[in-house]
Amino acid sequence: QVQLVESGGGLVQAGGPLRLSCASSGRTFSSYVMGWFRQAPGKEREFVAAITAISWSGVNTYYEDSVKGRFTISRDNAKNTVYLQMNSLKPEDTAVYYCAGNPRTPKDRRDRYEYDYWGQGTQVTVSS
Length: 128
Fold this sequence. Notes:
This protein is an all-beta fold. The chain has strands at about 5, 10-15, 20-25, 35-40, 45-50, 60-65, 70-75, 80-85, 95-100, 115-120, 120-125. Helices cover about 0% and strands about 45% of the residues. Strands 2, 4, 5, 6, 9, 10 and 11 form a 7-stranded mixed sheet that branches. The protein is globular and about 40 Å long. The chain starts with a strand and ends with a strand. The mean pLDDT is about 95.
């Protein structure tokens, strides 16, 4: 059973940075596709970013349009951890952020139902 634990959330002023971490207990973390999703009050959980497993060609990353150029997803397989560096934060980024893992290549990395494992979430609040 894989456990994912997010950390790093908090309150930040608009324009500021924040880095989220997601630590995995799984021994096969390096082969997982990892994603970050977020859910604001009264809204559906939405895709933020995803990163593939490391292959001979490196990794591929994917972003939701509204965070491109501001957020960066990365992974450290030695630490079984995936990160989400968030810069230039906006009030509309306020949400609970979840990390998710999939041991297989999902058909659609943006589809939350493609992910098998989820963390408990960490709150990010951006004040204006």
